[in-house]
Amino acid sequence: MSRIAYVNGQYLPHRDASVHIEDRGYQFADGVYEVVTIVGRKMIDEEGHLDRLWRSLSELRMAPPMKRQPLKMVMREVIRQNGINNGIIYLQVTRGVAPRDHPFPKGVPSSLVMTAKRLSMEKLAAKAEAGVSVVTVPDIRWARRDIKSVSLLPNILAKQEAKDKGAYEAFQVDEDGMVTEGSSTNAWIVNTEGKIITRDISHSILAGITRASLLREMKAAGIEMEIRSFSVEELRNAREVFLTSSTSYVLPVTKVDDKVIGNGRPGSISLKLRKLYQDFMIAK
Ligand code: PMP
After folding, report:
1. Distance between CA atoms of residues 181 and 170, nearest Å
2. Of 96, 119, 142, which residue is a domain's last?
3. pLDDT one digit per residue (tens) for the chain, 284 residues
4. What is the dihedral of CA 174, 180, 183, 186, to 10 degrees?
5. Which domain covers residue 34, as residue numbers?
6. Do 24 and 84 fall within a single domain?
7. Which one of 32, 246, 277, 281 would you pick to mutate in the ligand 1 pocket, going by the greatest count of ligand atoms within 8 A of its CB?
């Protein structure tokens, strides 16, 4: 089945899909995005992702490209036309096409692009069984990391540093030595006392949808957690480390920089939480 992209009202062959050179997403990174996981043909946390998209748009005073209900219909059509069973759908909204000038253009409709792709559940399961490694890097991003902006240069540099060092992810660290989040994931630890800890929501991190769903499922299962910042020191000495995101679900981390976590195998709590999250996805 050939890939289809949605671009401003049209369903086009993926390889021919393009936007104008004066799209503000292209010239200024003046846009926002979402990535929604599809499992068994169903979107996971569709409403949460759309809530966050609407929030990002409103924080940037950008007009939604269409009402929520028609947008959901386009998402379903993109998934259907691409025949996705397991994978992701990517949505991007920008402040439209206008002659290059910093202030917002007047009367210009937002641009909307969607793509979809398959993901291998087997590859992800293999990663989870083995555990992944992370490196720590300074967080050099702006002060509104809660907005899911397409302006991802610091995240790209962080991820590349991880890749160059043979790691899966980079955890970013603020000026006070506290872990903010991964370049495209949220960070969690199980500390030396067995407490499950993840950072609180603020302008310092993206409010991960996977993070929120896992917290909700944990609460329902009576699993205790602490919502607070943790330091690199706590991270390195943690009993267990794991990360969450729409494309990684709950993924155990077995090495931080040169420090092996626990016995170098995925921790039992991380695996239990991975299972809890997967059960939630399957039950949806
Ligand atoms: N933090 C950042 C910086 C991200 O890019 C992502 C992925 N969108 C996440 C956290 C995890 O968010 P989610 O669980 O919604 O995928």
Report:
1. 8
2. 119
3. 799 999 999 999 999 999 999 999 999 999 999 999 999 999 999 999 999 999 999 999 999 999 999 999 999 999 999 999 999 999 999 999 999 999 999 999 999 999 999 999 899 999 999 999 999 999 999 999 999 999 999 999 999 999 999 999 999 999 999 999 999 999 999 999 999 999 999 999 999 999 999 999 999 999 999 999 999 999 999 999 999 999 999 999 999 999 999 999 999 999 999 999 999 999 97
4. 170
5. 4-119
6. yes
7. 246
Provide φ and ψ at 112, rounded to 5°.
-130, 125
* Residues 277 and 136 placed together within one structural domain of the fold: yes
User: How far is the centre of ligand 1, averaged over its atoms, from the C-alpha of 127 (Å)?
Assistant: 18
Residues 255 and 232 grouped into a single domain: yes
Q: Is the CB of 243 under 6 A from ligand 1?
A: no
- Is this structure's pTM higher than 0.85? yes
Our CA angle for 188, 190, 195, nearest 5°, is 115
The number of folded domains in the chain is: 2
Same domain, yes or no, for 262 and 142?
yes
Q: How many residues are present in the chain?
A: 284
